[in-house]
Amino acid sequence: MSEVKSRKPANTAFKQQRLKAWQPLLTPKTVLPTLFIAGIIFAPLGGLFLYESDTVNEIVIDYTHCFSQTLGQPVIVGEDQYSYTFTSANTTVILVPTMELTNSTTWMDGTAPGDGSLVQRCTIEFTIPTQLNSPIYLYYRLTNFYQNHRKYVKSLSNNQLKGSVIGSPEAGTSCTQMSTDPSGKVYYPCGLIANSVFNDTFSNLTLLDVPGSTDDNQTFVFDDSDISWSSDNSKYGSYSGDPSSVAPPPNWSKRYPNGYNATNIFDPQKDKHFQVWMRTSWFPTFRKLYAKYTSADPLPGGTYKVSVDLNYDITQYGGTKSLVLTGTSFLGNRNSFMGLAYIVMGCICAFLGIVFLVRNFYRPRKLGDHDRLSWNNHQD
Fold first, then answer.
1. Per-residue pLDDT tens for 125-139?
2. Residue 136 DSSP SS3
3. CA–CA separation, 285 and 282 (whole Å)
4. pTM of whole model > 0.85?
């Protein structure tokens, strides 16, 4: 008979728990300085972070219901649908943004919808009250969109996105609820995330009535070639199979009305907007980078317009979509959460330090006092 293998752990210091260890004693002399030092560090840092966040200039304009406006008639954006946040003193006069709905036979890139439908275009005019230095970032902001839902997050095929050909069984496992079309073709790319990709299109910013110039308008070009994480490039590749063997997702029908062929097959490695969308958000309200302005020339104050091709219906989710134009600080975008969190934590540490200090001053306790043992306090 073979020997029974022993399940006894090896006789080593790690597995036999003989490593040297140090367990600090929590005494007033160690706890009180720690709390006060934490309070002294956290609170000023929080104030610095909050100040830096407040120095970021930002414009947010909700254009959700632009599609329902009367054609060719500019309308004023409601007070609850836009916000201006500027630090410069020269921001006393801010014109209310306006939106105007028009129809076009082509998208901004010059191509026409394959089904012959018209493209709804929303032109937004707004004021930048002071000069903005680059870099300047253009985001879209969505609300009430739960990208963090478990079924949604898992509904994709990493193998397919890297360019591999997958069959219906693998697509059905990876891309729940969005794997194949009625004819049995696998969707490319499959999954709920890809099918719901944000597809509104923003134009460059145009300055109207350029001051001190004979030109009526001046266009500032925003670049979208470097908006995704550099590490995302390794996650995507060109499709290696027959384009006619796969089908575009249902919500991509206007973009590919006749399906895929050798000349128009979707390439996720080149589509940076797709890569940004595929990095799902943790919260139902989020913003994603669309383009950025990195030229050395600043954006002068004045009235600007930007056009948006309305392709994305957010109303079916009961949400909203907004245009966000913002700068940045060394902490990133405008967000007061980190600063407030540090301030609150610093105040809590300082408060607890004061409470424990007073408690120790009026009712000190001797370390290792035998009179505190339960059997010494037992009364018959």
1. 999 988 888 899 999
2. strand
3. 9
4. no
